[in-house]
Structure formats: C-alpha cells, structure tokens
Amino acid sequence: MAPVLRAHALSKVYGHGDSAVHALRSVDLAVARGEFVVLLGASGSGKSTLLNILGGLDVPTSGELFFEDQPLHGASDETLTGYRRAHVGFVFQFYNLIPSLTVAENVALVTDIASRPMPVDEAVALVGLTPRSRHFPSQLSGGEQQRVAIARAIAKRPQLLLCDEPTGALDYATGKLVLEVIARINQELGTTALVITHNAAIAGMADRVLRVCDGRIASEERPARRLTPAELAW
Ligand SMILES: Nc1ncnc2c1ncn2[C@@H]1O[C@H](COP(=O)(O)OP(=O)(O)OP(=O)(O)O)[C@@H](O)[C@H]1O
C-alpha cells in the first residue's frame, strides 16, 4: 500500500551563518497507513522539528514531503492550514484545553468546524471519559485532561495522530492509561500514529521505532510483537 507520508532528503536549518542550527539533516521516511511509529532521541535531536514538519506546523528548508500524493514542501500557508485541519490531530505534552468549557464543549470546538466529524459523545467515549463529559478541565486529573486532548484531536477523524511527549507531564500509571488510549485509537480507527517520547519503554508498543540523533534517523527497528501498554514497564 502507498505510504500515507513520504519524506525525501528533508532538512531544516534554523537561523543563518554562524548561528545556524541544523535541526534535520536529509531525513528520508515513509510512513504506512495505520502504522504506529515511535520516535526516540535525546533532547535537541530534532524529533519535534520532524513531527512539526510532517504535521504542516513548520516547513522544511529543503527536501520533499508528500501526504498521500499531495506535495507539502513549498505549499502555501493556506494549503498547510487545510492539510492540518482535514488530516492531522495533534497532542502535546500540555493539554491546551479551554478552562471555561466542559469536556464535551472542548471536543465540540473541533467537531463544529470539521467536515465529517464523529459525534462528540463517541469521541469522549473512545477515551473513556463519558462520565466526565460535563466536567471542566480543572475538575480532571492530568491524565484525564490529556485524554480530552486526544478526544479533541481524533474527533475530526484525522488520518494522522501526531503526539509530542504525550505522557511527559504524567506519572507512570497515568501515562500508561494515555498510551493505551492512543494504541486503541490506532488499532480501532486505523489512525496512523507518530509518538515522540523520551521513554524507551514505550517503544515496545510500536510497529516501528525510529531513533533520531543529531537531525538524522540513526536507526530503526520493528519489534517482533507489539506489546500492549499494560505489558510495558519503566
Ligand atoms: N525555532 C527555532 N529556532 C532555532 N532553533 C530551533 C528552533 N526550534 C528548534 N531549534 C533547534 O533545533 C534543534 C532540534 O530541536 P527539536 O525541538 O526538534 O529537538 P527535540 O529532539 O524535539 O528535543 P526535545 O526532546 O528537547 O523536545 C535543537 O538544537 C533546537 O535548539
């Protein structure tokens, strides 16, 4: 099957001259539809830069990037906004929920503007928060707030779920619950998932693990069997 994302010789340089930072150095990558990819790597290795470019939040300095057959390199801001809106759900370390809106209302913000969203209740149920649907973010734990952020990201039925350190602010047990939700969405909805983490143990959940080092994909491995988050230990 054709990859959903294809990058060729993707490079990103921030700044100029002596102060130039080579955040990505000629990255080649193809991501299969429905794949669960974990990105590991030291701080500053280029993981977020890569994820942001794949998600149309940032643009490469050079190289090519395709979503299905659509070129994203050299695309206008308008095209990138349309790409993100239609196809990409983002989850970040901090949940970025609107404090004055309930769980359901936070999710509805997205479903109101999406073209073929799932019902809000369905998105909230997928992350296991139906009983908390009318609660406000301040009434929820960190892990629950992150699950609301995931519900919001997937409610528009994106092709891609891009997660940058989704468990970075959570304790062990809570982080696992959040990862279980991401794994379930990947498997039940077939959403292609890319997850950045500092936590090598999470890699056992993946179809493929990419190690990013100094702006390059230094190695990749495909675990023989995908573990469930419950089987992970760290
Ligand atoms: N807007 C920017 N301007 C200048 N340099 C940047 C910018 N964004 C990132 N960088 C630099 O690019 C390099 C890669 O950063 P990036 O955030 O992609 O790394 P990372 O692997 O995600 O790190 P972390 O795990 O700490 O989030 C770093 O040296 C960083 O300082």
Automatic annotation (TrEMBL):
Concerning CDD domains, the annotation shows:
ABC_MJ0796_LolCDE_FtsE
PANTHER family, per the entry:
ABC TRANSPORTER ATP-BINDING PROTEIN MG467-RELATED (PTHR42798:SF2), LIPOPROTEIN-RELEASING SYSTEM ATP-BINDING PROTEIN LOLD (PTHR42798)
Superkingdom of source = Bacteria
Q: Which residues form the ABC transporter domain?
A: 5-232
Does this entry carry the keyword Nucleotide-binding? Answer: yes
What is the taxonomic lineage of the source species? Bacteria, Pseudomonadati, Pseudomonadota, Betaproteobacteria, Burkholderiales
**Family to which the UniProt record says this protein belongs:** Belongs to the ABC transporter superfamily.
For this entry, the protein name equals ABC transporter ATP-binding protein
Q: Which UniProt keywords apply?
A: ATP-binding, Cell membrane, Membrane, Nucleotide-binding, Transport
InterPro entries found in the cross-reference section: AAA+_ATPase, ABC_transporter-like_ATP-bd, ABC_transporter-like_CS, MacB-like_ATP-bd, P-loop_NTPase
Source organism of this protein record: Ramlibacter alkalitolerans
Gene3D superfamilies on file: P-loop containing nucleotide triphosphate hydrolases
Q: Name one GO molecular function term.
A: ATP binding
What SUPFAM superfamilies does the record point to?
Answer: P-loop containing nucleoside triphosphate hydrolases
